[in-house]
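TA notes, week 10

Several of you asked for a full example with nothing omitted. So below is the full record: structure tokens for the whole chain, then the designed sequence directly under it. When grading your own attempts, check the secondary structure regions first.
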């Protein structure tokens, strides 16, 4: 169960490797990493930052998968009726419901 707010944001994130220049600009990344995740080392750059971000999102998804999808959706809706249009950390919202 991968929950995303905006599928086009997710698709553009998946295309990131197409624009990453390992040879001439390895410390740059051209994505905004808008989805809020916690515990990131903001001093990292380039692929290291992207890798850390992807790992954090993956771990959050693993944690969320222990709950029924309907529970997660209900928690999000009770937090904000237009949750799909906003950028909230899903784990933080679900934790409020526990």
């Amino acid at each position: 169960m991968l929950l995303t707010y905006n599928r086009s944001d997710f698709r553009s994130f998946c295309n990131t490797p197409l624009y990453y220049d390992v040879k001439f600009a390895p410390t740059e990344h051209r994505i905004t990493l808008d989805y809020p995740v916690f515990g990131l080392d903001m001093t990292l750059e380039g692929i290291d930052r992207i890798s850390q971000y992807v790992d954090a999102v993956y771990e959050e998804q693993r944690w969320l998968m222990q709950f029924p999808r309907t529970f997660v959706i209900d928690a999000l809706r009770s937090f904000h009726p237009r949750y799909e249009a906003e950028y909230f950390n899903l784990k933080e919202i679900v934790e409020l419901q526990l």
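The radius of gyration is 15 Å. Use that as a sanity check on your answer.
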